[in-house]
Request: fold
Amino acid sequence: MRKLILGLAVTLDGYIEGPNGEYDWCFTDQDYGLNEFFTRVDAIFIGRKSYEMAQQYADSNHGQMVPGMPPMIEYVFSTTLTSVKKGAILVSEDSLNEAKRIKAQPGKDIWLYGGASLTDAFMKEGLVDELWLSVHPILLGSGKLLFRGSDSRTKLTMLASKTYESGLVSLRYRIDQ
Reply:
């Protein structure tokens, strides 16, 4: 079965965006392991808000929502969108079961790109297999937290870590279920 990997940038105090939705704190001076990560995945799960933000970025960056990202199947999870860009697949009903079905298909691993609501739902359902967090050396103090409250503990096993000269720390964990 394919793994679902939550891979994203986070501040040291746990925020994935600032209080006004900004992510200008993210380092972009090098790839920070993205190119290696891209060899592991061939599909992306993305929520509506993240999809809309990524499309705005792509519109002004030669169609790429992430620099250097190879072509992959995009699954957009939304109950409000009625259409998505050509080549993307809209998942609007029974998203948890649809995610399970896609994970069971042959292929490489799947990147859970965001957003917070989609991540929260998939974490609570036990669908996320790995966390790959790029921890940026900044404290935002407020904004959108990566993890919302949970009724249970989630045990993790460290798979890898790498510290960059910029102060960014890349952490990979397996979720023990």
